[in-house]
Amino acid sequence: MTTTLSLQELWPKTLDILHGTLRKPAIAKWIQELQPLGYDGQVLSIGAPGQFAKDWLESKAAPLLAKGLSTEFDTAVTVHFSVIQLSLPIPDDRAAGPPPRPASASRRGEDLFASLPLNPRYTFDNFIVGKNSQIAHAASEAVSKTPGRSYNPLFIYGGVGLGKTHLMQAIGHEALKRHANLRVNYVSGDTFTYHVVSSIREDRFGAFREAYRDVDIWLVDDIQFIASRERTESEFFQAFNTLYETGKQIVITSDRAPKDLQILDPRLRSRFEWGLMTDIKAPDLETRIAILQKKVQQEGARAPEEVLRYIATTVNANIRVLEGALVKVLAASSLTGEEITVALAMEQLRDHSTISGAKAITIADVQQMVIQHFGISLGELTGSSRTQNLVLPRQIAMFLCRQLLDASFPEIARKFGGRDHSTVMYACNKLEQTVKIDRQVRAIVGELTSRLQQTLN
Amino acid sequence: MNFTCQKRVFQEALQSISRAVATRSTLPILGNVLLDVREDRLKLVTTDLEIGMTCEAPLEGPESVGAVTVPERIIQDVVSNLSADADLTISADERNLLTISAGKSKYTIHGLPADEFPALPEVSSETVITIPAPLLRDLVRKTQFAASTDEGRVILTGCLLTWDGQTATMVATDTHRLAIKHVAVGGQFNAPVSVIIPSRALQELLRLLGGSEENVEVAVGESQVRFAVNEKFHIPTGDILIQQQLISRLIEGQFPAYERVIPPASQKQVIANRQELYDAVRRASIVARTESNKLIMKSEDSTLVITAKTGEVGEAREELTINLEGEPVEIAFNAEYLQDVLSVLDTETVELGLTGPLNPGLLRADGEPDYTYVVMPMQML
Q1: pLDDT (tens digit, 9 = 90+) per residue, A80-126?
Q2: Weakest-pLDDT range from A98-107, A323-332, A347-356, B126-135
Q3: How many A×B Cβ pairs under 8 Å?
Q4: DSSP-assigned beta bridge partners for residue A186
Q5: Contact: B176, A85; criterion CB under 8 Å
Q6: Which residues in chain A touch residue B252, judged by CB atoms under 8 angstroms apart?
Q7: Quick check: B225 contacting A, CB < 8 Å?
Q8: Cα distance from A182 to chain B (closest Cα, Å)?
Q9: pLDDT at site A1
Q10: Distance between B137 CA and the closest CA of chain A, angstroms
């Protein structure tokens, strides 16, 4: 049996095994297009219709097939797949080559990757425009009136709770009001990431791409969540390109400017900068009061001007917290039947003020403070030199990030020049020991800690 | 707006721009054509936001100027069904109602305001290539078909156009084949040009050019390209000049370095009559196309045998006489990749240079040294 086995004998059995084990319709089509290329007594060569089919079959079918054939013919057969149509070695500079799109995408796919619902409260009417958000608001209005033609892409960035999502969804609402048949897709960075991951797992990229390309206005919230994930970035990049090139509107929000995003692909970053980049800053006092007035009106309540002013002065950063503070005061009043007064607000917001006024400290802030204190540069702090005058500041900075920000080791490692997280663990442990025995270091750490905590308040 | 125009002129103008109308867009106005009447001319504009087309025709003293947009399909249908040598009187009012009268026919069509119509981008460029239409047609026709249709790699869905002030080159590839054509052309040179033009825009350009013999001005801007051609149109009262433009956005990015995949001198040359080879390939592909479209070519002395075999349909066998230089040949190709190129060439003979059954083939047209076609074979049985 070992010497006379020919391709003609082998091939029908090969097809039998494949049909028996792989039942998906898409794969049945491939099997039909497979071609026997040769058998040299050991290796069976099979031609596959395309690169994707080849890769898939090689990983999924080759072992099964080898086992089946070896058993059937009582001789060791290995299986090798190659692509029938050869390709020119044309360099591909894309980050990760995606598999070709399957012939058709199912309807179900569209639901699976459907837009997240827009919050009906997030309209332009409900948005209070202040100096902090003037440009972002004007750009958003322009975009909603003439999607794809005013500012494309529109990139809105700013801190947490300042109204980025509100503006973005307002664009969606307004555009739909003007052109009811526009397809608006609102997705958050992490949902998009999840979609990419589940498409990989379930092999549903056809439906995935279909869903993200059949869109007139694409609203992508919190883009920072796709950063640093290679495959997700690559899919986003392609969806972005397809939409951009067909004149579809893209709106993106982020908690930081494009140049500060940890994006792997520089082309993607540069695309963000093609359109308009605009930031939303923390609102000033007048704007905060106006926001509170609007909120009071929405809640159908009444509150004296001086109470609103008090809240606006006390809570001075984040609109979400600002509104939360107001609701707390209103709720206290309606529960206890007490009149809304400054005294009541003071009472309610006593412990609130420290948290609400908090400005989120970032690793960058810590680094800034440390390099100022030691008079070194950021490059030196995050660089690889291990001279004594740099090692201590570096350890202190890492330690503070860990202690005060509760940042994860890998995150700290990344922000300090892409080190290994175990380096950070070591540094933090080391400094903890040093602080115990070295008064001078203890003093420095103490001072920096209190200065950072001051910024916190 | 109110003007009179010969039906044939109006219809011609309307037809020349109809391809840029967005037929299934979510913005209804993109299905419309913009009619813009100025002192001495009529300008028609369509766009699907990817490409835009304009056509201008001279107008003798319109009664009043103005602009309106109306559904392209409707006005096209109405106009083309009016009697051939009618004079059209076309007017529009401030409610965007367009009225067309010709003899005893009168149609009023609901339109949309002109100011809602997207403005075509201005292509401001100091670089203008002047190419006679037949040369431009040649450049596009012999390369564009090789561009990729896979949106996954957007850059390859376009064709690279380069120009150094003397030679214009167009390149397209889908990674299985590569087509390169050079033509010598002049123009207003500013800096070397290297842009990627969407394949679809070039297809529309071919349609627009038709059989024109005029010069085409290709203005290359930062992110758009504009093709402009003036076409003489004959009417009984004399020739009139119709100005046509096609504007397309460019594909952003870097075209891959394609030069290095062009194989060096080949060891074997198959020299065949182009038409005979084309006919044989086309017939054999009837069998081949039901599966992988694979043709096997095998030389027997001065005969080339082309065979195709599929489980579903059956077998095909074609023989043709060739001149063979070098050793015998046995290689498999995708029928489509040969058919595409053989159908656009116009020389009498072609040379197919080969080195091995798994190495790229180099196809050249005899007497057309400025054309190169590289095609990858398929795995043999």
Answers
A1: 888 888 888 887 755 433 333 333 333 333 355 667 778 778 888 88
A2: A98-107
A3: 101
A4: A219
A5: yes
A6: 241
A7: no
A8: 6
A9: 43
A10: 25
Burial class of residue A357, CB neighbours in 10 A (0-12, 13-18, 19+): middle
Who's near A83: CB < 8 A, 6+ residues apart? A47, A48, A49, A50, A51, A53, A54, B379
C-alpha distances out from residue B268 to B31, B325, B351, Å: 54, 5, 10
CA A257 to chain centre: 14
Alpha-carbon distance values, A13 to A1, A73, A88, A326, A404 (Å): 15, 10, 33, 75, 66
Question: Which residue of chain A comes nearest to B362, CA vs CA?
Answer: A88
Q: What is the DSSP string of A339-373?
A: ---HHHHHHHTTTHHHHHTPPPP-HHHHHHHHHHH
User: Do A90 and B49 lie within an 8 Å CB cutoff?
Assistant: no
pLDDT single digits (tens) A240-292: 888 888 888 999 998 888 877 777 777 888 888 778 888 888 888 888 888 88
> Residue A252: which of A232, A222, A226 has the closest Cα?
A222
User: What is the pLDDT at residue B131?
Assistant: 95
Domains and their CATH numbers in chain B? 2-116 (3.10.150.10), 128-229+248-258 (3.10.150.10), 262-375 (3.10.150.10)
Q: A85–B249: do the CB atoms touch at under 8 Å?
A: no
CA B306 vs. chain centroid, Å, equals 31
Q: What is the pLDDT of residue B296?
A: 94
The CA distance from A121 to the nearest CA of chain B, in Å, is 25
Residues A85, B26: C-beta atoms closer than 8 Å = no
**In the block, residue with structure tokens 């990627």:** B196
Residue keyed to tokens 């150094």: B164
Q: Which residues of chain A make contact with B334, given a CB cutoff of 8 A?
A: 85
> What is the spatial distance between Cα A380 and Cα A375, in angstroms, rounded to a whole number?
10
CB spacing of B154 vs A101 below 8 angstroms: no
CB contact under 8 A, B153 and A37: no
